[in-house]
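Hi there, hope your week has been kind to you so far. No rush at all, and the record is pasted right below.
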Amino acid sequence: EKQRLEQEATQEGEEARVRRERSVSLAEMDKKSAYVGEPVTVTWWLYNAAVVQQWQIAAVPKLVEFWTEEQNRNETPERVYIGDVMVQRLPIRRVVLFPLQSGRLRIGGMSVQAWVLRRSRTGPFAMFEGELTETTFTSAPIDLDVRDLPLGPPVSAIGDLTLRCDMPVQKNAGPVVLRVTLSGLGNLRAATPPHFEGPIAGKMQSEGGEVTVARDTGAFAMSRQWRYLLFPEESGMFEIPPLAMRIFDPATGTRRDLRCATSILNAVAAPPAVAALPAVKPSPRPLPWTRVAAAA
């Protein structure tokens, strides 16, 4: 009930601002509370009941308590009603935030500078006549309630995520290559790689960890890929144990394990490559102990 009353009060305030100022900037979140590390999308809108000739972002809030990922936005304006006032609404910035700490975190206002046509008279052609006025307006700050993860074992990542393992491949008696991809809605830049749940009959090296971000409106997602290089000790049937990682799913508020099943292939023994030692350059001048030996 309290949240409903606060929302109604906010809507009434927005309607009054649009009536008074004709153009305002407002921020909206897709959720009011989140866990640490859970993605939250914030969109800043330009609500316009006047004729805006040009606009630009004048100042953005500092978001030091969040990891941020900018998202693409749809520049097409749409007509909406605030109360009984019809306005144009245009997204001017959209950011996916990942809270870095718990508590009530404030997202500051964003300032927009615009050049608005003030009508000088009424009539059928009044919308094309008037004085061009420069104005600046700032969105109100909004608060996000962030809570810690429930007590439990550590997790490798937070979000709505899936783990995919490609079929292992060996070429030209080289290492067995296993490509693993973690993807979904979450901050995968901070994710730790999955681990094998059993021993490997050989040596193992890992590489990669590249992150890909899809920034399209309504389809924000991340993916991260690792490559495991496995060097079998003997030729024959080579068993790769399950690969697993533990994540926290904010939608259910629980931890769960992502796992790839055991895989087996007929492999050729492949010792890991040993990097050659760098060549030692001769000293440009005699070493001091050389002169000592000569004097003796």
User: Anything to note?
Assistant: The radius of gyration is 30 Å. Confidence is low (pLDDT under 50) at residues 1-12, 287-296. The first helix runs from residue 2 to 21. The longest strand covers residues 85-99.
